[in-house]
Amino acid sequence: MSSRNWRVVLLCAVGVLGCAVGCKSKSSFQLDGIDVLPPVEELKEFPLGKYQIPIPIVDDRNQTKLTRHNRFQFDFTLYALVSSKEKSQIEEAWGRYEGQIRDQVMNVCRSATLDELQEPEFATLKARLTDVLAAKLGEKPLRQLVINEVVSQQL
Questions:
Q1: Which of 22, 25, 53, 97 is deepest in the core (most CB within 10 A)?
Q2: Residue 47 pLDDT exceeds 90
Q3: Share of the chain residues as helix, strand and coil, in percent rounded to the nearest 5
Q4: From CA 131, how far away is CA 115, in angstroms rounded?
Q5: Dist CA 53 CA 103 (whole Å)
Q6: Phi, psi for residue 83 in degrees, rounded to 5
Q7: How confident is the model at residue 22 (pLDDT cuts 50, 70, 90)?
């Protein structure tokens, strides 16, 4: 073998040996145990009522005058996800403001577009509802909204 080949073999051997020694880590990867860790926070569902809302559909094809011709029935159950520590705060606020909250939910739904009411995850509607509800229920305790048991149909 020529000296050039020996250098290549020697460099490869040093590289493999260096990798074998350097790649062995005595500590495990930090995220290995993430699946077995307990959740940071347990969230509980708090019911915010069942809603059956008739929504007028606005026809804006005629730009000079908006006409309302059909109605869209939007039925659903609304839940708030809250931490178990703050559930009592939500219960107290719900007891105090239930009527106002229900009115605000209906107003937000009635002002939503037909496209927003037909989104698969209702992302836009949930964002608007979260903004309105946080004022009454509190921003910290209200973590997320869940819209469940949805039935929508044109009347």
A1: 53
A2: yes
A3: 45, 30, 25
A4: 19
A5: 11
A6: -75, 155
A7: low
Does an H or E element contain 43, and which? strand 43-59
* 3-class SS of residue 154: strand
Q: How far is Cα 132 from Cα 125, in angstroms, rounded to an integer?
A: 11
CATH 3.30.479 for the 43-154 domain, yes or no:
yes
108 pLDDT band, cuts 50/70/90, is very high
Pair of tokens at residue 49: 């009522």
Examine the pLDDT at 71 and tell me if it is beyond 90. Answer: no
How far is Cα 143 from Cα 101, in angstroms, rounded to an integer? 16
Q: What are the structural domain ranges in the chain?
A: 3-36, 43-154
Question: Is the model's pLDDT at 27 over the cut of 80?
Answer: no
